[in-house]
Amino acid sequence: MAGTAIHGRLKWQLGTVVELVEETPNTRSIALALCNWHGHRAGQHVDVRLTADDGYQAQRSYSIASAPEDRNVVLTVERLADGEVSPYLVDELRIGDQVEVRGPIGGYFVWEATCERPVLLVAGGSGVVPFRSMLRHHRAAGGAAPIRLLYSARSQSALIYRDELTRMSGYPEIDIRITLTREQPGGWDGYRGRIDRGFIDLVAWPPADRPLVYVCGPTAFVETAADALVTLGHAPDLIRTERFGGTGT
Amino acid sequence: MALSPNFHSRRRTDVDPARVPPGQYVTSGFPVLSAGPTPKTPPADWTFTVRGAVDRPRTWTWDEFRNLPSETITVDIHCVTKWSKLDTSWTGVSLETLLGGTRTQAQHVLAFSDGGYTTNMPLADISDGRAWLVYAYDGAPLAPEHGGPVRLLVPHLYFWKSAKWVRGLELRNQDEPGFWERYGYHNYGDPWREQRYTGD
After folding, report:
1. Cβ contacts of residue B56 below 8 Å, gap of 6+?
2. ipTM of the complex
3. Distance (Å, rounded) from C-alpha A241 to C-alpha A238?
4. Which of A74, A83, A160, B158 meets the CB 3.0–4.6 Å disulfide criterion with B80?
5. Tens of pLDDT, residues A16-55
6. Which residues of chain B are within 8 Å of residue A249 when distances are taken between CB atoms?
7. Do B32 and A223 touch (CB under 8 A)?
8. Contact A8 B38 (CB under 8 A)
9. Cβ of A169: how many Cβ atoms within 10 Å?
10. CA of B136 to nearest chain A CA: how many angstroms apart?
11. Of A3, A49, A227, which has the smallest distance from its Cβ to B182's Cβ?
């Protein structure tokens, strides 16, 4: 896959908040109107910079949740208890506010709908955010690749994009498998427990199909899932990972 | 610039701001970032090679490498994803020691790792006592997710230059961008000049 060549400097630009969606009690999607945006690829991220009254600045990276075809750039941000920027974005930001943005950034953890190879997406918690971009891109571009998303969340209330994922699972090319690790509602007919080797063996495509695999989530989740995939025989060079998790451990 | 009136600094107050490069924040954790699965190379299978534009290529086995003089260094590290970690303690061999016996006219180096990762830098940046091959962190063997058995440590550049799972250096007459450098990250990556992305 070709790299994303960035010509010239990535400049900071102002994004205006045009829509806010509470996805879960800890997570919110922020739609930004950007005047000087030249598009992105599904899976890329941006840097966001906040400036306090006293001039203090802080910046962090957030995955883009919208498809390249969508009108606005949408970020889905999870509030980190010890965070500096995320509590502001989740709790304080209002429609009409402006924040500084620069991007898109990253050219490896990306997916193009023109690629017809089966795609396996493995998400832990808010690691589902870049995959929402890929799924929406698949729909908007009329992609032919079969996509299977394995999504692990703590509980039903912690599921991000729940309704949208339910709708998407109605399309024949899209297969969504959700597992709830800590708490399942009555009548839950999905999977239970963490994504481990047994789970991946059960619900992922076999390695012989040579799917392109993307894994995104907290470090421990990504380590477990990527190790399991390699152990099961998936080629390491077909597995792309993105790890995050606040300050890490 | 847009002001965010209700935004307030939660920057740690116990940290000397002069030690934190622009746009960075200090963490006490140790985040992990890598593009693919973690390779697991046992020391018995590990070698380190210096090759390319050199008078003769050289390779060290694990035992030969561990018999070289090593030192413990305490440095601050800065990741392009904005975290910095102060006073990290590593044990390893200075690249000055490893490159000392090699004659070359090369000015560039491309480090290469298990899993296919590469990163480039000027040879001068790693041959003057500012870079190490480290095998221990905080006195314990370096964990695989942090780059073990051996990673490069070039603390004066953003941490993606400190290649995990490193297996060798290719000395080059011409600069060759590495993995992240080809995906839009800065060719040099000086955190104090905030050289995060191409053009910064």
Report:
1. B102
2. 0.92
3. 10
4. B158
5. 999 999 999 999 999 999 999 999 999 999 999 999 999 9
6. 29-30
7. yes
8. no
9. 14
10. 17
11. A3
Contact between A249 and B199 using a beta-carbon 8 Å cutoff? no
Question: Which tens digit of pLDDT belongs to each residue from A136-175?
Answer: 999 999 999 999 999 999 999 999 999 999 999 999 999 9
Determine contact, residues B182/B62, Cβ cutoff 8 Å: no
| Per-residue model confidence as pLDDT tens digits over B140-197 | 999 999 999 999 999 999 999 999 999 999 999 999 999 999 999 999 999 999 999 9
Is the pLDDT assigned to residue A2 strictly greater than 60?
no
CATH topology of domain A13-105: Elongation Factor Tu (Ef-tu); domain 3 (2.40.30)
Q: What is the CATH code for A119-244?
A: 3.40.50.80
Domain holding B183, by residue range, is 21-29+47-193
| Angle, vertex CA A193, rays to CA A188 and CA A196, nearest 5 | 140
Residues of B with CB under 8 A from a CB of A: 1-11, 23, 25, 27-39, 81-83, 115-116, 145, 179-180, 182-184, 197-200
Which tokens go with B78? 């800065």
Structural domains of chain B, count:
1
Average pLDDT, chain A: 93
pLDDT of the residue at A101:
97
Residues of chain A with CATH 3.40.50.80: 119-244
